[in-house]
Amino acid sequence: MHVLVNAAMSADGKLSTRRREQVRISGDDDFARVDRLRAAADAVMVGVGTVLADDPSLVRFDRKHRQRVGKSGVPARVVADSRARTPPDAEILRGDAPTYVLASEAAPADRRRALVGAGAGLVVAGEGRVDLAAALGALSDDGVADLLVEGGGELIFSLVEAGLVDELSVFVGPLLIGGRDAPTLADGEGFVDDFPRLELDDVELLDGGAVLRWSLAE
Ligand SMILES: NC(=O)C1=CN([C@@H]2O[C@H](COP(=O)(O)OP(=O)(O)OC[C@H]3O[C@@H](n4cnc5c(N)ncnc54)[C@H](OP(=O)(O)O)[C@@H]3O)[C@@H](O)[C@H]2O)C=CC1
Ligand SMILES: Nc1nc(O)c(N)c(N[C@@H]2O[C@H](COP(=O)(O)O)[C@@H](O)[C@H]2O)n1
């Protein structure tokens, strides 16, 4: 499986505000770029923190680009959600695109049932938190070869920590958000040594900001 992380951050590295409310950091051209990334993906993934904060549907994508890259159907949606906290009426469970909820053994049975009842494909991996390597393995077995991860910072950190990310693209927008408690591109516990190293592949000026494309070094 190829894993691409894409997100938009302010010039000071924030994904949103201290209130964890969604901020439009990207401009129209960057959102069009994201639509192409989604079009080229078999599935688009977020953490449950993003589901609870933004209630995203993740259904928008560039249909012409999907034809160009030779993919059929629509990209699936994926939520990393250890305790099955995704509300059964969340936007991510609505519409025609399939949705996988990645949960752990810690997810209560009634919440699992409610999500399956709402149409989710439930993948259980890990005891406390989702075992991301095992869960992505299950997605891969189900035909997900190209996974686009849109955030947030907790999920991105864990994926990088587990060595599961191949590429990172970040739109750095022309604004400052600030706030010591505002989410950043990589939150979690943070690294104190053995910092993952990145190789810069490309820089593109867009929407008054820039898209930086990196590969994760081996
Ligand atoms: N600007 C941008 O491009 C984007 C901005 N955002 C913003 O980010 C914020 C949300 O980000 P954040 O709060 O970090 O939430 P995340 O979306 O990263 O979700 C984090 C949650 O995912 C669950 N999870 C399950 N398994 C794991 C695992 N192995 N490792 C880590 N987490 C796991 C955890 O909950 P549990 O333990 O219950 O499973 C965790 O709390 C919002 O404000 C949103 O607007 C989000 C996406 C993109
Ligand atoms: N690329 C990007 N730029 C921004 O400025 C953003 N705020 C986000 N947020 C992400 O997009 C998701 C919402 O997608 P839909 O509206 O459902 O299509 C949101 O949940 C974040 O993952 N992304």
From TrEMBL:
It holds the Pfam family RibD_C. One of its GO terms (molecular function) is oxidoreductase activity. GO terms for biological process: riboflavin biosynthetic process. Residues 2-211 form the Bacterial bifunctional deaminase-reductase C-terminal domain. It catalyses: 2,5-diamino-6-(1-D-ribitylamino)pyrimidin-4(3H)-one 5'-phosphate + NADP(+) = 2,5-diamino-6-(1-D-ribosylamino)pyrimidin-4(3H)-one 5'-phosphate + NADPH + H(+); 2,5-diamino-6-(1-D-ribitylamino)pyrimidin-4(3H)-one 5'-phosphate + NAD(+) = 2,5-diamino-6-(1-D-ribosylamino)pyrimidin-4(3H)-one 5'-phosphate + NADH + H(+). Keywords: NADP, Oxidoreductase, Riboflavin biosynthesis. Pathway: Cofactor biosynthesis; riboflavin biosynthesis. Its EC number is 1.1.1.302. It is an enzyme of class 1 (oxidoreductase). Coiled coil: none annotated. It comes from the Archaea. InterPro entries: DHFR-like_dom_sf, Rib_reduct_arc, RibD_C, RibDG_C, Riboflavin_Biosynth_HTPR. NCBIfam families: rib_reduct_arch, ribD_Cterm. Belongs to the HTP reductase family. PANTHER family: 2,5-DIAMINO-6-RIBOSYLAMINO-4(3H)-PYRIMIDINONE 5'-PHOSPHATE REDUCTASE, DIHYDROFOLATE REDUCTASE FAMILY PROTEIN (AFU_ORTHOLOGUE AFUA_8G06820). Homodimer. This is 2,5-diamino-6-(ribosylamino)-4(3H)-pyrimidinone 5'-phosphate reductase.
